[in-house]
């Protein structure tokens, strides 16, 4: 065997061995980190509300004593779902009015239905008074979702 050929084989052998040893060390480090992560993993979601606060919601919807389901059209605002107007309609065909002092969007239901879905708008804010959404000379960012029906606010 020639000396040059022998030296090439020795050099190549050392290079491959070093490469394998280096990659094995990296793999073991990654494997240990992954193992440590899963060994210490917990399904506890305690404290996550500090990172992803959920809006305060109520699962209770207003259901009158006769059991009829009632709703009102609403738009999404920084205050959550805000009713359009102050008239509540029920499946039976009956209607009622929101309490005085409730925030409302001062649009008719027809005007609100014509708004383009998911488009930020400036909407006139009002307050319900005797079943009428009285403009309070303030505006609020709002947008319409394809389904506008919301439960009656408590």
User: How far is the N terminus from the C terminus?
Assistant: 94 Å
**Overall number of strands:** 8
Mean pLDDT: 76
Radius of gyration: 32 Å
CATH topology of the largest domain: Archaeosine Trna-guanine Transglycosylase, Chain: A, domain 4
Shape: rod-shaped
Q: Name the CATH class of the largest domain.
A: Mainly Beta
Considering DSSP H and I runs of 4 or more, what fraction of the residues is helical?
Answer: 25-40%
Characterise the protein shown here.
The protein has 154 residues and is of the alpha+beta class. The chain has two domains: 1-54; 70-151, Roll (Archaeosine Trna-guanine Transglycosylase, Chain: A, domain 4). Helices cover 27% and strands 30% of the residues. It contains two helices and eight strands; from the N terminus they run αβββββαβββ. Strands 1, 2, 3, 4, 5, 6, 7 and 8 form an eight-stranded antiparallel sheet that branches. β3 (87-90) and β4 (95-97) form a beta hairpin. The longest helix has 37 residues, at 3-39. It is rod-shaped, with a radius of gyration of 32 Å.
